[in-house]
Amino acid sequence: MERLTDKFGRPITDLRIAITDRCNYKCVYCRTGNQGAQYAELPFADYARMARVFAGLGIEKVRITGGEPLLRRGVVGFVEELAGLRTLDDRPLDLAITTNGHLLAELAQPLKDAGLRRVTVSMDAVEPERFARITRVSNGFHAVLAGIRASQKAGLDPVKVNCVLLRGFNDDQIVEFGKFARDQGVVVRFIEFMPLEEERVWSPEIVVTLAEVLERMRRFRPLVEIPHARSETARRYTFDDGVGEIGIIAPVSQPFCGHCSRVRVTSDGKIRTCLFSLFDHDLHEVMRRGGADEDMAAYIGQVIAHKEARHHIGEPGFEKPSRSMVHIGG
Ligand code: SAM
Predict the structure, then answer these.
(1) pLDDT score for 77
(2) Which residues contact 135 (CB under 8 A, 6 or more apart)?
(3) Of ligand 1's atoms, which has the minimum distance to the CA of residue 65?
(4) pLDDT of 32 over the 80 cut
(5) Would residue 219 count as lying in a domain?
(6) 41 versus 200: which is more confidently predicted?
(7) Does 39 have pLDDT greater than 80?
(8) Are 50 and 5 in contact (CB under 8 A)?
(9) Which ligand 1 atom is nearest residue 194's CA?
(10) Mutate to test the pocket of ligand 1, among 22, 72, 144, 162 (most ligand atoms within 8 A of CB)
């Protein structure tokens, strides 16, 4: 079987599957007050079949996302099913999940036992009041902390914490996050805010760039860059004493599209070749029509071949995709 490669020669090895677009948080930069589903959710067996076909085409990592993936009952069984799949080199898939962490305290150990390797928890402030202002949920902070600790105890490794910085909202938390990374033994990843929100709040001025994070963090303690793999999205740093790791994902100020290895499947079974794609590709429709695995593989191959070269954030004529992050799968 041929490995997935797009027309620019980029190998596609990283699949993200959204299993719902519902969420129990209403982060100000992500969604409106509406928490319900906008797009369909498929049975887990359908996502598992898609993952199996993708694995047969060279996918090596699968990240489960959403919406909030832990809202879906049966997510542990789904992980167990994915853990049974093999890469083309006959290795287990590298399985990860991105979650807001609210329900993680209970689920970390069962997820680990089912075969999950690593977890990324989204947390945009390290102080309860600020956290509540961003998530618009009053009781979340301690639940998320408990989720992080339960993940560490379960042996999920690494435990990463994603933080989207917004000027005027949480940019004063940068150094606090540096301390948090050092004290808690988590890898903190700052992500530049992208124009993928439901409400139109994005502007270049609100984005806190990689350069700014580095400058502010260096005033706290000197940083040492850690070499990173070409396809890795984050620039990684430790502090001068080797304690703690932070990373910065800078899709806006320093796009990494040239090394993109990602493809996404939305909760309703559509392929998205770029976060900023203007079109979906209906893989589930191929299944509904009774397509065999080979038909799905052929369809995926055609779609991937036409993956976009890059995004156009900040350029004249930039067109925001019709689906926001929460309906694509971050
Ligand atoms: N509910 C899960 C969570 O909170 O991690 C998974 C889905 S969420 C959409 C995935 C990640 O996307 C989160 O870390 C979130 O902060 C990030 N995100 C959402 N909207 C974003 C945006 N416009 N720009 C950058 N990151 C965004």
Answers:
(1) 98
(2) 25, 26, 27, 100, 124
(3) 6
(4) no
(5) no
(6) 41
(7) yes
(8) no
(9) 24
(10) 162
Q: In degrees to the nearest 10, what's the CA dihedral of 330, 27, 195, 209?
A: -90
66 CA → ligand 1 middle, Å: 9
Whether 71 is covered by a domain: the verdict is yes
- Judge whether 272 lies within some domain: yes
As a 3-state breakdown, the chain gives helix, strand, coil percent values, each rounded to 5, of 35, 20, 45
For residue 145, give the amino acid letter: L
- β-strand partners of 99: 121
pLDDT at 127: 95
Q: Judge contact between 134 and 170, C-beta under 8 A.
A: yes
What are the structure tokens assigned to 175, written together? 């150094």
pLDDT tens per residue, range 113-123: 999 999 999 99
pLDDT at residue 292, rounded to an integer: 98
Q: Sign of dihedral through CA atoms 247, 251, 255, 257?
A: positive
158 preceded by a cis bond (ω within 30 of 0): yes
> Which amino acid belongs to residue 299?
Y
Q: Where are the beta strands (DSSP E) in 66-145?
A: 94-99, 118-122
pLDDT at 35 over 70: no
Which amino acid, one-letter code, is at 148? I
Q: Measured between alpha carbons, how far is 112 from 117 in angstroms, rounded to an integer?
A: 6
Q: Which of 31, 35, 98 to mutate to test the pocket of ligand 1 (most atoms within 8 A of CB)?
A: 98
Residue whose tokens read 């100000």: 28
Q: Is residue 30 one of the residues assigned to a domain?
A: yes
Position 1 pLDDT exceeds 80:
no
Atom 20 (ligand 1): residue with closest C-alpha?
30
- How many domains, the chain? 1
* CATH code, domain carrying 143: 3.20.20.70
Question: 52 falls in which pLDDT band (50, 70, 90)?
Answer: very high
User: Measured from the CB, is residue 65 less than 6 Å from ligand 1?
Assistant: yes
Out of 64, 148, 191, 328, mutate this one to test ligand 1's pocket (max ligand atoms within 8 Å of CB): namely 191
Residue 292 Cα to ligand 1 middle (Å): 34
259 secondary structure, DSSP code: G
Domain span at residue 304?
Answer: 14-159+258-327
